[in-house]
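hi support,

uploading two proteins for the ticket. first:
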Amino acid sequence: MVDFLIVGAGFSGCVLAHQIATKLNRKVLIIEKRSHIGGNAYDYYDDHGILIHKYGPHIFHTNSKKVFDFLSKFTEWSYYQHEVLAHVDGRKVPIPINLDTIKELYGLQLSENEMQEFYQSVREPIHNITNSEEVILSKVGLELYNKFYKNYTKKQWDLWPSELDASVCARIPVRTNRDRRYFSDKYQVMPKHGYTKMFLKMIDHPNIGILLQTDYQQIQQIIPHKYVIYTGPIDYFFNYKYGKLPYRSLNFHFETKDQERWQDAAVINYPNDYDYTRVTEFKYLTSQSHQKTTIVYEYPTNNGDPYYPIPKKDNMELYQMYKQEAEKLKNVWFLGRLGTYKYYNMDQVVAQALTLFERELQNL
């Protein structure tokens, strides 16, 4: 008999397991279908001894002191501010677009005020924005949209930006200064010894058990429990009774190079060339010292593990049907990217889990 059955050993599940075990002194069993903890943030040392992220680069950034302080209980940090280049017109230029991007592409030496005027001169005034294409056109105009966003979005989602909800590209910043950082959050760090070590410390408690390579559907009737916290795909929980929710997935191709550095930045985007969207070199992220380096190519696909909920109107309507089913259940909570069919950053998932604990679980 356990008090809480937690389905999924990613951020949501591990954060809540820790809170329940330590603050409520209740018994928790984590069920995980994969062979490891950590969800998509799982990292490990490859055959060459290089620390890599199995499911593509995970860069931690947050403005939330609460989230940062919570995770700091389980890891030391390496300070890391992420920079990305985009391969455009045969050059590697900064993305998000900034003063240096415009200088590289057009030979223009602009001030910050002149950069604002430049955007104003090229942007398309769209008053009622309904999709991602309109978001970008209203920020940077048609030419930059074509160079950086149109084909990258098509590769990533297999949909044109005009077919995607405005929320997808609303996240994309554009700059009027020389700031080359991809993120502008207050806290930009990486777990000093990797995400997996952080998760191991988080769930190292006598009240927490874990079953790996285990399907929740196969054991839910076998193991007595009072409460369920479900972070897997919500449609699977309900046996796809209304149909499958669509996701985009990724295929990863790893290569190890016999040299210390391979490319000019941690991540290089390829919006217009090749079938892959980007190439990541992990040693930039991890600050590891090694005579070799490992890179990964990302190929978006419709088949494979569910990574990205696809924000289209009909998909959201399908999710609402499952959400209504979920709201009828007692003592079952759905959260995380898969449980709520919403794209979250890592810090947002942690915040969601901490909030759920404070509002609903700690008084059970």
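and the second one:
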Amino acid sequence: MKAAPFAYVRPARLDDVLGELAGGDGKVLAGGQSLVPVLAMRLGRPSTLVDITAVPELTSSTSDTEGYRVGAAVRQRAVEHDRAAHAVPLIGMAMPFVGHRELRSRGTVCGSLAHADPAAELPALACCLDATVELAGPAGRRRVPAGEFVTGAMTTAAGPEDVVVSVTFPPARTREGFGFAEIARRHGDFALAGAVTRVRVGGDGAVTDARLTGFGISDRAVTRDVTSLLTEHEDDLRPAIAALADDVVDTGGDAHGSTGYRRRLFGVLAARELSRALHRARNGKESS
């Protein structure tokens, strides 16, 4: 199929982007890896595509004490090879699993967040790390925690006249470890189940904070505080995580796997990656 007719504009200023989106019938175009298939299947028929890749503010990434900030038009491939991204080890762990290399060369980090696919890696990573999404709209700018930004499958807190400006990932702390794993039918396919973990320990090696985010298991990434689980069941996490999986995995079964199968996948991945993250936190190894 072919897309329905639309107008195309490429503003050079963010204010002009917002002007083009006024009325709510326009659609932001950055990498287009999610939007173009939607247009081709005529699942969406915007009157205007607003290309944001000429706005300087949206095309750069920076790193400071607040974190690693990625502009809305920055390609995933650029982030994957950006030395500044090393401040956020989970980015390096997760990015090779985001689609294929060719898709990452065009797709954007913020575009993946805005698309809000339940099986996507980057929204899950953002939720696990408490990343912050910056939006601009008719009422000005606002910052939304990643856990509140995605509100459901393919649904976010961004309104039809809003544009995502950036996402900021907090840097890794001392004595903090991470884990990431997913299972897909083929590398680059949508995950049947995935787990992102973050564990912090004190100077004595005791767990002070542990978070687990699952993706591909519900209508959005699901995050849980699992500090008590890791403290009480460190020697054998599997039974405790299996019980947690029964609670958080609620996606319906399909041709690729039943709900029960996804629960088993998530349970195994989550227990393993929590153990790895704890080991890394205690040994000062962020991603190896």
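thanks. also noticed: The chain has a mean pLDDT of 95.
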